[in-house]
Every structure is written in C-alpha cells, then in structure tokens.
From TrEMBL:
GO terms under biological process: polysaccharide biosynthetic process
Entry EC number(s): 1.1.1.336
Bilayer-crossing regions: none
Gene source species: bioreactor metagenome
Domain UDP-glucose/GDP-mannose dehydrogenase C-terminal: 310-402
Protein's name in the database: UDP-N-acetyl-D-mannosamine dehydrogenase
PANTHER family membership: UDP-N-ACETYL-D-MANNOSAMINE DEHYDROGENASE (PTHR43491)
One Pfam family in the UniProt entry: UDPG_MGDP_dh
Matches recorded under InterPro entries: 6-PGluconate_DH-like_C_sf (IPR008927), NAD(P)-bd_dom_sf (IPR036291), UDP-Glc/GDP-Man (IPR017476), UDP-Glc/GDP-Man_DH_C (IPR014027), UDP-Glc/GDP-Man_DH_C_sf (IPR036220), UDP-Glc/GDP-Man_DH_dimer (IPR014026), UDP-Glc/GDP-Man_DH_N (IPR001732), UDP_ManNAc/GlcNAc_DH (IPR028359)
Length: 431
C-alpha cells in the first residue's frame, strides 16, 4: 500500500513513519522546503520520543520520502492545521481545502481519502466532499472519503497512535470500511466506525470536555484564593469520591486542541453553547490571574516595578517543546507590559532569546513555573538560594510537593525558599 500524507507536523510525521514501519511506501508532503530537506536528511523538527529512530529506519529501508508535491497513491491522509477564524472563532478550513485541492490531480478511482485534521461538524459533508465531487468522483463508489481524528498526547504520540482506539467516520458505510482497513495496518486499539459528522463532533467534544473541566478547576482556584481555602486540598479530597474527577488547575490552556477546538462547536451554535464559551473565557483569563498574583507577591519588594522575573517553561505541555497556543507566552507578554525584566528558560524549546537556568534565576526576585517539565520538579535549591535576589518560586503547575524529599544536592536551604502554588496563594508560607 502506498500512502501520501499531507502535512508533516506533530501528527502527520509520526503517522507517516508508523505506516512506513509496517511495510507501506510513504510520501510525506509539506509546503515548507526546510522541513522537507530536514526530514530527508533524517532530522526531525519536533520533539517526540522514538520518532527520529523510526524515521531513520524508514529512510534506510526506502519506505519514506519527504516531498513538496503529492504523488499517486492508494491512500491520501490530510493532517494540516485548522486554526480559528479571527472574526467569529469558527474553524478555518483553508489549509484543509488547499490540501484536498492539491491531491485532486493525483487521485484515481478506488483511492481512499482521509481527513485527520480536527474540523467542525458537517465540514466533511458540506465543504470537503464537494471538492472531490466537482472533480468527477462519486463518493462511496469510486472514491472513499472519511474523517478519522487522532487522539494522542504529546510525548506519547508514537505509543498512542498504535494503542489508542480510533474513530473512523465515513461519508458512506463503504467509506468507513475502506478507511478502517487502512488503520488496521498498525492500530492495535479498537477501530470504531461511524458517520463523518459524528466523528467530527466526537473529536471536538473530547477536547471540549477536558477544556470545560480544566475551567472548573481554574475557577475553583480563583474562588479559593479569594475566600481563603486551599484549592489543591479541595481537589484532592473531592476526587476521592468515586464519581468525581476535577482536573488540575494551571496558568491556562494551550495546544492545538483544547485551546481551539471548542470554538468550532461554539461558532456553529453560539446561543446554545454557553458553557463551552464560558469555559474558554475562564481558561483564557488565567494568564492575567497569574500576572496579578505575581504582582501581589512582589508588593513587599522595594522597587517592585524594576523586579526581575525568571520564567521557567514556555511549552504548554511538560517534557515537550510544543509552544502552540501556550499560555506561558501570554503570561510573558503581560509581564513585559507591566515593565518587569524577564529572563526565560525552557530546556525543551530552542530560542536564541532564552537563557540557561542559572542565568534566568540570577538576581531574580521571583521564579514562575509555567511548564510542568521534569527538570522543574527537582530544582537545585542551593543554587536558587545562592543566585536569586529573593528566593520565591510561584509554581502555577503545582508540581513541587511540599511533602516530597528532594534528593538533588544539599536541600537544607529549601526551608529558606518561599514556594507558592494554587494551594497557598491566600496564605503564603515557606514550605
């Protein structure tokens, strides 16, 4: 089977190498020449465990090649981005439409076309299907069209693409059957067949469910901060109930899924989707909440306006270099507008303007943890005490346990460092 995958990003590239790893001939297409050159030289442009090794194996076995143009294939898979339209927050299908149009000259009867990009409900039926029908194909008879969304976690993409259950939503039953056979090449999870519009809504609601639950946790944090209750203790105790699962609060919601996809539903029915919109507004408000609390923490410092802040982490997801829609970037912009001196460290993100951990905390008045990287769970407290002007850590990801035993270096100075999280914002104390 020959597979042509349009888009070689966080989903397209891992999907491509997994097909190649299962004896398929794969063409990976992207519009960025630098990415194409990089991939054909066996260099990856995203951080994902196990990906580079699989790419090298695929290239060595001549099962994968990156290209700027599609080629005739048996299967075409679309994995391009779908951002929000600025005007009404609806799903911007321009990249998907362009990708679909780009493969039309290469299509033949019997081909399978799968859209993996997250799209608004009814997009496949009302917008994508007509592209191929206008080219002379009868969907379900001589071209098989489906929407098959991914559901993976950055940092575990390779593992979850194989083991997670998959939704296959065809325009017709035969479209679903044909697409399911494609994924049977490497998917070990259950393949669930349905219609396209149901698959589209299911994907959007998976991400909306998580966004709404995070918003509930973030709202709880705000309430507890105001009335003087430990939000983290509340969550821990409430979750002892067998049917309760309050999510973790944080500095906001990032990524290409949770921060974007709920708007796809809201834009279709704004009068009905009030909870969805309120959850988005709540999560979008968290960077300002972080900045406001940072200012309160710094109130007792002389020349607070000239304070230096060390930002620890820019990626929205721990142990990855993924900064898409990251709330940390918004926090940084807001802090800069307040006039603070900002030094940024992230061991997973390459940026010439970022610095080492030691440089970031040098003479800093406060360090703010905005990414839950492993590196920040076990900090060098001796170094922090030595380098920071005021050894205060504001842990917005709640990853430093006040009961944990830190094994790195001499930890006696941890008691001299003020550690603030969403549990003790209202009653600051040294752990």
């Amino acid at each position: 089977m020959k597979v042509c995958i349009i888009g070689q990003g966080y989903i397209g590239l891992p999907t491509a190498v997994l097909f190649a790893d299962n004896n398929c001939e794969v063409i990976g297409v992207d519009i960025n020449p630098e990415i194409i050159d990089c991939l054909n030289s066996c260099q990856i442009h995203i951080e994902e465990p196990g990906l580079k090794e699989k790419l090298k194996l695929a290239i060595d076995n001549k099962k994968y090649h990156a290209s700027l143009e599609p080629q005739k294939s048996d299967v075409f898979i679309i994995t391009v981005p779908t951002p929000n339209n600025i005007k009404d927050l609806s799903c911007d299908l321009s990249f998907v439409i362009s990708a679909c149009e780009s493969i039309v000259p290469y299509l033949e009867k019997g081909n399978i076309v799968i859209v993996e990009s997250t799209i608004a409900p009814m997009s496949t039926d009302e917008i994508i299907k007509p592209i191929f029908e206008s080219a002379g194909f009868e969907i379900g008879k001589d071209l098989y069209l489906s929407h098959c969304p991914e559901r993976v976690l950055p940092g575990k993409i390779m593992e979850e693409l194989i083991n997670n259950d998959r939704i296959v939503g065809g325009i017709t039953e035969e479209c679903s059957n044909k697409s399911a056979q494609v994924y049977e090449t490497f998917v070990k999870g259950k393949i669930m067949k349905t219609e396209a519009k149901t698959a589209e809504m299911s994907k959007c609601m998976e991400n909306t469910f998580r966004d709404v639950n995070i918003a509930l946790a973030n709202e709880l944090t705000k309430v507890c901060s105001k009335i003087g209750v430990n939000a983290l203790d509340v969550i821990e105790l409430a979750n002892k109930h067998p049917r309760v699962n309050i999510h973790s609060p944080g500095p906001g919601v990032g990524g290409h899924c949770l921060a974007i996809d709920p708007y796809f539903i809201y834009s279709l029915a704004p009068e009905e989707a009030k909870i969805i919109k309120l959850a988005r507004d709540t999560n979008n408000s968290m960077p300002k909440f972080v900045v406001d609390k940072t200012k309160e923490i710094l109130e007792n410092i002389n020349n607070v306006e000239k304070a230096k802040i060390a930002v620890l982490g820019v990626a929205y997801k721990g142990n990855t270099g993924d900064t898409r829609e990251s709330p940390a970037l918004i926090c940084i912009d807001l802090l800069k507008k307040e006039g603070f001196e900002i030094a940024i460290h992230d061991p997973h993100v390459e940026n010439e303007n970022y610095c080492s951990f030691e440089e970031a905390i040098q003479n800093a008045d406060i360090s703010i943890i905005l990414s839950d990287h492993e590196e920040y769970k076990n900090l060098d407290y001796d170094l922090i005490k030595e380098k920071m002007k005021n050894p205060i850590i504001f842990d917005t990801k709640n990853i430093i346990s006040n009961n944990s035993k830190i094994n790195k270096t001499n930890t006696s100075k941890k008691d001299e460092i003020e550690i603030i999280n969403y549990g003790n914002l209202w009653n600051r104390k040294k752990f």
